[in-house]
Amino acid sequence: MAAAGQVSWAAFAQVPKPFGWDMNPPTDSGDSFVKWMVENRGEDENFLRKRWARYLVLVANKDVINDANKRAFLMTPRERFVTKPNLPRAYDNAYLDIGFGVTISGPHLVGRMTSNIDVNQGHKVLEVGTGSGYQSGYLSHLTDQVYTIEIIKKLAERTRGVYDGLIAEGYSEFKAISTKNADGYYGWEEAAPFDRIIVTCGIDHIPPPLLQQLKPGGLMVIPVGPPGAQHVLKVVKQQNSDGSFAVARSDIYNGRFVPFVPFTKLEGDAIKGTHNGV
Question: From the centroid of its chain, how far is CA 74?
Answer without folding.
Answer: 14
